[in-house]
Design a protein that fits this description.
With 168 residues, the protein is mainly α. It has 9 helices and 3 strands; from the N terminus they run αααβββαααααα. A 3-stranded antiparallel sheet has the order 1-2-3. A hairpin with a 4-residue loop joins strand 1 and strand 2. It is globular and about 45 Å long.
């Protein structure tokens, strides 16, 4: 499936590839702006205001993710995945419509997050905390979260690199 996406040049295809690799939500990817990206640190920081849980989320960027982002810079847009209107993001239906055009209407964009979670636990053997942190899920009780101050970035960086290898 990923190889089929690779053969497509539409921005929606690139956004879907990036969404699959990052295991992020559609709205997080489509709202992504260049000022959230630190290419030197290989990091995308989604501000709390754009996160479902209201907490900023750091996403480690793999080689494959950076390869997808590189040509998007040439568009010189505020948004990484610009839509049909200048300096506006892709429509939230763009990736779903792409799946339908590909004859994969039985797939959902959110389903790729679920696939990542299954793979992380069953195939990669990732600790629950690392897999859930990659999905920006809050885990544990309020007390546990008060003591768990790390976002496990380096462990997630390794997990996301392995996920990229599986997808590509």
């Amino acid at each position: 499936f990923y190889a089929d996406l690779e053969g497509r040049t539409a921005t929606a295809a690139k956004a879907l590839q990036f969404t699959i690799l990052t295991a992020c939500r559609t709205s997080e990817v489509l709202g992504m702006t260049w000022d959230e990206v630190d290419l030197d640190a290989r990091l995308w920081t989604i501000p709390a205001a754009r996160m479902k849980g209201g907490v900023a989320h750091r996403v480690p960027l793999t080689d494959e993710m950076l390869r997808i982002l590189e040509p998007m810079r040439a568009m010189a847009s505020d948004f990484v995945f610009e839509g049909q209107k200048r300096h506006r993001p892709l429509s939230n239906m763009s990736m779903l419509m792409l799946l339908r055009r590909m004859g994969r209407g039985q797939f959902t964009v959110h389903g790729f997050r679920s696939s990542f979670r299954d793979w992380a636990g069953e195939e990669a053997g990732a600790p629950r905390e690392v897999a859930e942190a990659a999905l920006a899920h809050q885990v544990g009780s309020e007390v546990e979260r008060a003591y768990a101050r790390s976002d496990l970035l380096e462990k997630r960086r390794a997990l996301m690199a392995a996920w990229s290898d599986v997808c590509v």
